[in-house]
Specification:
Shape: flat
Structural class: mainly alpha
Strand content: under 5%
Distance between the termini: 68 Å
Keywords: Membrane, Transmembrane, Transmembrane helix
Pfam families: T_cell_tran_alt
Family: Belongs to the TCTA family.
Number of helices: 2
Radius of gyration: 27 Å
Largest sheet: none
Helix content: 55-70%
Subcellular location: Membrane
Order of helices and strands: HH
Number of strands: 0
Protein name: T-cell leukemia translocation-altered gene protein homolog isoform X2
Length: 89
C-alpha cells in the first residue's frame, strides 16, 4: 500500500518537473522581451559567478592571509594567553 503512494508521489513530482521544463523551453525559444531580459540577466549571473570563482582562485590565499592573525592570539584573534594590563570597562 505504501509503495503505491510513494510511486504516485514520485510520478507527480516527475510529471510536474517535465511540464515545467517543457514550458520553460517553449518560453526560451520564444522571441519576446521577457525572455530576452531573462537571458541577459542569466548571462550576467553566470559571468559574475565565473569571475568570482577565478578571482578567488587567484587572490583567495591573499585574502585569507589578511584575516589570519599571527601571534599569541591564535587564529582569527582568539583569546591571548596573557590578559591585557588594563582593567575592565
Amino acid at each position: 500500500m505504501e509503495e503505491s503512494w510513494d510511486f504516485e508521489f514520485l510520478s507527480r513530482i516527475v510529471d510536474g518537473f517535465v511540464s515545467f521544463l517543457s514550458e520553460f523551453v517553449d518560453d526560451w525559444l520564444a522571441n519576446d522581451m521577457r525572455v530576452s531580459i531573462f537571458k541577459i540577466l542569466f548571462s550576467w549571473l553566470v559571468v559574475s559567478l565565473i569571475a568570482i570563482h577565478f578571482a578567488w582562485r587567484v587572490y583567495g590565499n591573499t585574502v585569507n592571509d589578511m584575516y589570519y592573525r599571527q601571534g599569541t592570539g591564535g587564529q582569527n584573534g582568539g583569546t591571548p594567553d596573557t590578559a591585557p594590563h588594563r582593567s575592565g570597562w
